[in-house]
């Protein structure tokens, strides 16, 4: 059984989050947490929160063993873009697009 956790409307580009998710996909939760902790990217902390949430959902709601949990799938979908405008030279307007993403992490218990 897969248990998931989703962080929606996170203020970071999905492309940047996918780089981090590629590092932890398929690993055990106990292995993924130190990897996320020591990554230089500030977005690794966001992914870490989602992984912790998925692991605690599995442990508390479905009585799964936290030592046997591994990440089956992790992906980042594109959320709505916030469109903003900034004044430019000679009275013109420059468009600024602020992307958001939805981070999903699914964990399952490894069969012995």
How would you describe this structure in keywords?
single chain; 112 residues; alpha+beta; Ribosomal Protein L22, Chain A; 3-stranded antiparallel β-sheet; two-stranded antiparallel sheet; 3 helices
Overall mean confidence score, pLDDT: 95
What is the radius of gyration computed over CA atoms, rounded to a whole number of angstroms? Answer: 17 Å
In percent, how much strand structure appears in the residues? 35-45%
- List how many beta strands DSSP finds: 5
**Order of the strands making up the biggest sheet:** 1-5-2
Return residue spans where pLDDT drops below 50 for at least 5 consecutive residues: none
Profile the largest sheet: 3 strands, antiparallel
Helix content: 25-40%
Oligomerization category of the chains in this entry: single chain
Count of individual helical segments: 3
CATH superfamily: Ribosomal protein L22/L17
Task: Quickly give the structural class.
Answer: alpha+beta
Basic shape: elongated
- What fold name stands as the CATH topology? Ribosomal Protein L22, Chain A
Number of domains: 1
- What is the distance, rounded to the nearest whole angstrom, between the alpha carbons of the first and last residues? 14 Å
Q: What CATH first level would be assigned?
A: Alpha Beta
CATH architecture: Alpha-Beta Complex
What are the secondary-structure elements, in order, as H or E? Answer: EHHHEEEE
């Amino acid at each position: 059984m897969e248990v998931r956790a989703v962080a929606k409307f996170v203020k970071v580009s999905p492309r940047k989050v996918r780089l981090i998710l590629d590092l932890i996909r398929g690993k055990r939760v106990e292995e993924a947490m130190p990897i996320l902790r020591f990554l230089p990217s500030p977005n690794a902390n966001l992914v870490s929160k989602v992984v912790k949430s998925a692991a605690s959902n599995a442990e508390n709601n479905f009585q799964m063993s936290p030592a046997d949990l591994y990440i089956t799938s992790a992906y980042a979908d594109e959320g709505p873009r916030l469109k903003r405008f900034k004044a430019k030279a000679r009275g013109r307007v420059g468009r600024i697009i602020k992307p958001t993403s939805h981070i999903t992490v699914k964990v399952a218990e490894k069969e012995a």
